[in-house]
Amino acid sequence: MEKVNDLKLNVSLLRRKVPNLTSAARLVGLRPATVSNLCTGKIPIGRAEVRTLVALASLAACSLDDLIIRAEKTEIIETQIKTLDLFAPLAKGGTVGLVARPGMGQLVVLAELLYRFKNEAYKTIFLIPEGEHRGLNDVTKNAEIVTNTIEETYDNIANVGGDQDIIFVADRTHVITGEIQQLQENLQGIGIHSITTFLVDLTGEVVDEDLPYGPLETLWQFDADLVARHRYPAINPLSSTSSVLEGAHLDQEHFAIQQKALKILRRYRELRSLVNVSGIERIPTSELQTYRRGERLEAYLTQPFYIAESYTKKPGQAVGLQDTLKDVKDIMNGAVDSKNVSELEFIGKLQS
Prior knowledge:
This protein is α/β, with parallel strands linked by helices. It folds into three domains: about 5-70, 434 Repressor (Amino-terminal Domain), CATH 1.10.260; about 95-215, Cobalt-precorrin-4 Transmethylase, domain 1 (3-Layer(aba) Sandwich); about 250-345, Orthogonal Bundle (Bovine Mitochondrial F1-ATPase, ATP Synthase Beta Chain, Chain D, domain3). The chain is about 45% helix and about 10% strand. A seven-stranded mixed beta sheet has the order 7-6-8-9-5-10-11, sandwiched between helices. Strands 1-2 form a two-stranded antiparallel sheet. The protein has a two-stranded antiparallel ribbon with strand order 3-4. Helix 8 (about 135-140) links the parallel strand 6 and strand 7 (about 145). Its main location: membrane. This is F-type H+-transporting ATPase subunit beta. Keywords: ATP synthesis, ATP-binding, CF(1), Ion transport, Membrane, Nucleotide-binding, Translocase, Transport.
């Protein structure tokens, strides 16, 4: 008998069968946010209501056996960007959606990832969105292949073949039309499965929708408060999710450190709101340690990017997952309580 933790939604099937899942979910009385959390694994299958699963199977015109599948081990792509690898790891071969308003740094993150992946022997492809958009130059410059149409993209990926790992970046407009889903289905039809897809929205409309890209393995949500305080990359660890840390993909040490870090950051944000209104003296003595460590943890999660070196005058930093886990554990255990917050801002790993 299958363990409940070994089960997950067949996200690729949902993506193919129900391209506009947001509207479809609402029409049958489902909350899009619930569907999104089931797709990323934030809500385990074992905690899903039966009526929700039946409704999804009906939308996809499939059986429950087709909708609910065994969660095979998924490989993580290490970005060596601390906050991404810790809180919402990238599932190899999956689809990740970026949720941000213009100016929050999503294109900088994409350009940095393309730069890093290109140097790791991935084939990187960027489908140019329609219209004029600021900040695209860095993305275009760091993509190995730039295409203008879905047809051109298909031809280039088909020429690359199924033996090469591919990173593909596209705009949400191609999701709305169903072209991305059709592209993925066509490529699977010729045996190409090793594509990790990044979806971005350059209008900012995704911020106001619960399921803007359809089913996803990974969701990276950018945060206006982090942007305002120049905490880059400004990705909110509390609302970004990934299926990698659930079910069969679970790494116990990673998960334990991640959950403790989330608890500290969540409480730190609550306390910080109090400090902003009434001053630090209003924080109960018993909470001061949590506030101080949350402050240092948030500072540590900032990181200098290679593509921004000419602007920041700081050398780019790559931090492996194991180093990130060790450093975060040390911060939470008080190893850097004596350091100033400024000493932890925009660094790589902690120095021994």
